[in-house]
Specification:
heterodimer; A: mainly alpha; ABC transporter involved in vitamin B12 uptake, BtuC; two-stranded antiparallel ribbon; B: alpha/beta; 6-stranded mixed sheet; 4-stranded antiparallel sheet; 58% helix; 11% strand; elongated
Chain lengths: 297, 599
């Protein structure tokens, strides 16, 4: 039972990070129909910002928000430079563009910073753990779960209560009508990228906090997982992205925990296999996006 | 298949073989570069068969390349070598020692079987979700290859594969792949899939099972990509699982996209361009001296170069260099059209009826169609009118299977067809047009119509005549080779009708066919429709806001308001129905009309 609880905490922590990433992807997808392949590079950028902040001797409480700010800035720059020219293109055009951006950024990281993994200076407190009864919970796990919850609540408030948030939700349902109602396309899309950058930044901080290192391809695998989480949840659905993220976190952690030794090398493949089987039952995801099947005929 | 297709193929083959001859004469590194080019080209052609014709980008095809490279490598590797490097291989594989041909056949078939299983899931997903699923496939297969150490040596180098891929083997396979890719594109299957790419919903309504077409293309494309995997493995001799992951996916996708994934010519152009750029940049990467300056080493400059090319192409010409047309299609615009038969093909049999009984369609809380019962008989023209938002189009969508019914039943003659897909209903003889024109925009007028005419392929012949007849009936024979999206609004509506006619429907649904046409065009269209109804014995259900038109054309009119049928009968009687007048003009308006009539 304790083992089970322990694994549940691990799953919530990992799933939370996937959820943040998937949410960032979903916000962009719901508004522009674009899958942003370069989302992972935002996470990597955050990691490098933390690394440089650490080297400059900044305390973590300042370095972390600074790193998130760098991710927000990078996301908005990315949109302005690379994605705005293809905004009216097909989903495939936008996807390919972002794929190219991702590869260019990865290569730049390799050339300008280092090809190898670099250590990140973190406060010692993060490596501690707290014992509650028989359970041992890492401080970084507590941090990760707390931050995930705070962000989800804050984002929910933003999308429901603020003008820009409501404009974004309107744009996600029907961008052309939203524009006719006076919603400004550039503001909404820039805003969406800023939020998506913030989410990737937060996920990046949490990711690095557990690993204390950063490499040029750091963001690639978690964002790959977030892609899978977002179709599992329902592509373009924000609630679905969160659900998909947590679901994937649980699937992965519990496979690692309960799979026999011989099968461990296949756990990643099995986790994705389970997702694909789930999609066979629910092709539009666990919580389908509002627009699915509503195409006007 | 048009003669043009073969001219196109001849052009590619001449280019490939010419390149091979030149490379043989130069020899050495030129040969190696060209072998790599051929192998990449085969992979790109394979990816294009699926992605180009379906419009769904795939990141997963290198999985099939990997599967085939490992499996064929195991089959051709000398037995003694396997005892050293793959000691735990099961006996039937450990003792196998085949030639390249046998190994290729087995590896390609195996990859296609895997593709079939995976494809059943992927073909159910739409657009971007399908793309992500292919990404998942790549990760899964990568993980399995690393995990299955006994077969693959995990993430270590897999070595000892005999180097059997020489220039002429690669060239021969490239010719094979290019012939298959082009024949598939121009075949009936390719045409149907391309129609589904342009408009999945309309393709369904024209009898195309889009999912099945995607699955077929997926399996064929996996086979071609597997072939390139076999060649790659037997060219390199030693490789690791990294060769079949994202770095190479990026390079191959770049070739596919830069040239234009919708065409074989584009795949070829992209492969040539990216190969040249890669070769040049690779030399730069190892440091180069220009005008006495030694440029700094730039790790991965090929990636940046390719990335920038992709960005440039996406910004300037998102469809790629060759966009939608093959080189031969650019040169020879006109194609041969069969002569229209003197007699219209006759579908008229005895007394068909289409009946809806208490059909209801609800969108969450909104009930768009509420317990509607209507019937259309043979050779009958029924008008469906009502104010905006009264549920007319939704009723057509439900009756044609585009939307599922919430409750109620639909009968075709005595068969219950409730819940049948639009493709199946198209097969049973229900054709339709759409309110907001849904043509296959990248196809020519003739191809648009052919998609519907080829519904029964390969069971029935005579599609050419059906196409010619439908084009002639709508006066479009002169415009047969025009790209559909470039036509005027009225002509596009005519193409939609011609396309529906090519299904040889027993019932035809027309959703505002005269919208955007002037009086003369409308009158001409109505005369045509009346004629078709009589000669073909079709039942027509027509929605339009042009009330004088409906009143003149129809023998019976059904009036809907707020999802319900509020009146039905002969045009003259319906026109005077107080409920109808009220629905159109409101209570106050109807009072004025009544006053006007009585005074």
């Amino acid at each position: 039972m304790d083992f089970f609880l322990q694994q549940t905490i691990n799953a919530v922590s990992l799933g939370g990070t996937y959820a943040l990433l998937a949410l960032g992807l979903a916000i962009i997808f719901s508004i522009m129909g674009m899958i942003n392949f370069a989302h992972g590079e935002l996470m990597t950028t955050t990691g490098y910002a933390l690394m440089f902040a650490g080297l400059a001797g900044l305390p973590f409480v300042i370095a972390a928000p600074l790193a998130v700010a760098v991710a927000i800035g990078t996301a908005m720059l990315m949109e302005r430079i690379a994605f705005r020219p293809v905004r009216k293109g097909s989903p495939a055009t936008m996807l390919v563009t972002s794929f190219a951006v991702a590869v260019i950024l990865q290569t730049l990281f390799q050339n300008l910073i280092a090809t190898r993994s670099q250590p990140v200076i973190l406060p010692d407190a993060l490596a501690q753990s707290v014992a509650i009864g028989d359970l041992t919970i890492g401080v970084n796990q507590i941090l990760s779960i707390t931050i995930t919850v705070i962000i989800l609540v804050a984002l929910n408030w933003f999308l429901k209560r603020t003008t820009l948030g409501i404009a974004m939700r309107a744009a996600a349902e029907d961008f052309s009508v939203a524009r006719l109602m006076g919603v400004r396309a550039n503001a909404v899309i820039s805003g969406a990228f800023a939020i998506s950058g913030a989410l990737a930044g937060a996920a990046g901080v949490l990711w690095v906090a557990q690993r204390a290192s950063v490499d040029p391809l750091m963001g690639f695998v978690p964002v790959l997982k977030a892609f899978i989480a977002s179709i599992l949840g329902g592509l373009g659905s924000l609630t679905g992205a969160v659900a998909g993220g947590f679901a994937l976190g649980f699937i992965e952690i519990f496979l690692t925990a309960y799979l026999p030794e011989d099968w461990q090398p296949f756990k990643e493949a099995l986790a994705l296999g389970i997702v694909i089987l789930l999609l066979l039952v629910r092709p539009n995801g666990l919580i389908p996006a509002f627009n699915i099947g509503r195409e006007k005929v | 298949m048009q003669a043009r297709t073969w001219i196109g193929i001849a052009g590619y083959v001449a280019l490939l073989l010419g390149g091979a001859v030149v490379a043989t004469l130069i020899g050495g590194s030129a040969e190696r570069v060209l072998i790599v080019f051929f192998v990449s080209l085969i992979a790109v052609l394979g990816m294009g068969i699926y992605s180009g014709n379906s419009g769904i980008l795939s990141f997963g095809h290198l999985a099939f390349m990997g599967i085939a490279a490992y499996l064929s490598g195991i089959l051709t590797m000398p037995v003694q070598m396997k005892q050293v490097s793959l000691a735990n291989l099961p006996a039937f594989l450990g003792e196998a020692n085949m030639g390249l041909l046998g190994a290729t056949v087995i590896a390609v078939i195996f990859a296609m079987v895997v593709a079939l299983v995976v494809g059943i899931v992927i073909s159910r997903l739409e657009g971007s979700a399908a793309t992500i699923a292919t990404l998942g496939l790549l990760v899964i297969v990568h993980g399995v290859i690393i995990g299955a150490r006994d077969f693959t040596r995990g993430s270590q180098s897999f070595f000892g594969v005999p180097r059997l891929t020489d220039l002429w083997v690669a060239a021969g396979c490239a010719v094979l792949a290019i012939v298959i890719a082009r024949l598939y594109r121009d075949s009936v299957l390719g045409l149907k899939l391309r129609a589904g790419r342009d408009d999945g919903l309309a393709a369904g309504a024209m009898g195309v099972n889009v999912r099945r077409q995607r699955l077929i293309a997926w399996v064929i494309s996996a086979g071609i990509v597997a072939l390139s995997g076999v060649l790659l493995g037997h060219f390199l001799g030693a490789f690791s699982v990294k060769k079949f992951y994202f770095v190479d996916t990026f390079a191959l996708l770049a070739m596919l996209i830069v040239g234009g994934m919708a065409t074989v010519t584009g795949a070829l152009a992209g492969a040539i361009l990216i190969t040249i750029v890669t070769e040049v940049l690779r030399r730069l990467e190892s440091g180069l001296v220009i005008f006495g300056y030694e440029l700094p080493d730039m790790f991965g400059s090929t990636n940046i170069g390719i990335g920038l090319i992709i960005l440039f192409v996406m910004w300037k010409r998102a469809g790629g260099i060759f966009d939608r047309l093959e080189w031969d299609e650019l040169i020879f615009r006109r194609t041969r059209t069969a002569a229209a038969p003197e007699e219209m093909p006759h579908a008229a049999e005895e007394g068909h009826t289409l009946r809806a009984e208490k059909v209801t369609k609800a969108f969450d809380g909104l009930i768009a169609v509420n317990e509607v019962s209507v019937a259309v008989g043979q050779s009958e023209i029924v008008g469906l009118i009502g104010p905006n938002g009264s549920g007319k189009t939704t009723l057509l969508n439900v009756l044609s299977g585009v939307l599922p019914v919430t409750s109620g039943r639909v009968f075709l003659d005595d068969d219950d067809v409730t819940g049948a897909s639009s493709a199946r209903l198209a097969g049973l003889g229900i054709g339709r047009t759409f309110q907001n024109i849904r043509l296959f925009t990248s196809l020519s007028v003739k191809q648009n119509v052919a998609v519907a005419a080829l519904r029964q392929w390969p069971a029935a012949s005579g599609a050419d005549e059906k196409v010619a007849a439908a084009l002639a009936a709508m006066g479009l024979t002169d415009k047969a080779d025009t790209q559909a999206s470039t036509l005027s609004y009225g002509d596009q509506r005519r193409v939609e009708i011609a396309r529906a006619l090519a299904l040889e429907p027993r019932f035809l649904f027309l959703d505002e066919p005269a919208a955007g046409m002037n009086r003369e065009e409308t009158d001409a269209l109505m005369a045509d429709l009346k004629g078709l109804c009589q000669t073909r014995g079709m039942g027509i259900l027509i929605v339009d806001h042009d009330l004088p038109l409906i009143m003149r054309l129809c023998e019976r009119v059904v009036v809907m308001n707020e999802g319900r049928v509020i009146a039905e009968g002969e045009p003259a009687a319906v026109q005077k129905d107080p409920g109808v007048v009220e629905a159109y003009l409101g209570a106050k308006g109807s009072q004025q009309v009544a006053d006007a009539l009585s005074s």
